Amino acid sequence: MKKPILVYFDFNKIFKLYIDISNIGLEIILMQKDNQKRDQIIYYEAKTLLSIEKNYPITKKDAYDNVGNRNHILLFKGVVFA
Q1: Cβ of 63: how many Cβ atoms within 10 Å?
Q2: Which CATH class is domain 16-81?
Q3: 79 burial class (0-12, 13-18, 19+ CB within 10 angstroms)?
Q4: Please, are residues 7 and 40 in contact by the beta-carbon 8 Å criterion?
Q5: 27-57 pLDDT, tens per residue?
Q6: How high is the pLDDT of residue 54?
Q7: Are 69 and 28 spatial neighbours (Cβ–Cβ below 8 Å)?
Q8: How far, in Å, CA of 20 to CA of 5, rounded?
Q9: Cα–Cα distance between 22 and 50 in angstroms, integer?
Q10: 48: β partners
């Protein structure tokens, strides 16, 4: 049996949020370390940019990523990841 791609979160562990913004797309990954100290993915989301969006300056892409992912707001120990 293979290990699952996504794992359940544990409120007793630290969360890590990775955001990648490029000329190709936007990606967010929420991770935690497992008991063997390996990063495990809890949640991820990616979006390929449309042709017109690829011409946006990086600051607008950053704002777009922050606004574009508002439909998935995660609340962990009083910290909001949006």
Answers
A1: 12
A2: alpha beta
A3: exposed
A4: yes
A5: 888 899 988 999 999 988 888 888 887 887 7
A6: 82
A7: yes
A8: 19
A9: 12
A10: 25
- Each domain of the chain, given as residue ranges in start order, spans 16-81
Q: Which residue has the tokens 């007793």?
A: 12
Which segments of the chain does DSSP mark as H helices, in order?
58-68
What is the rounded CA–CA span in Å between residue 54 and residue 25?
8
Conformation bin of residue 37: beta by default, left when phi > 0, alpha when psi is -120 to 50 = left
Residues in the chain, how many? 82
CA distance 65 to 78: 22
The tokens 């995660």 sit on which residue?
Answer: 74
- Two structure tokens written together for 80: 């909001």
Position 8, amino acid: Y
How is residue 34 written in tokens? 């497992």
Q: What is the largest CA-CA distance in the chain?
A: 45
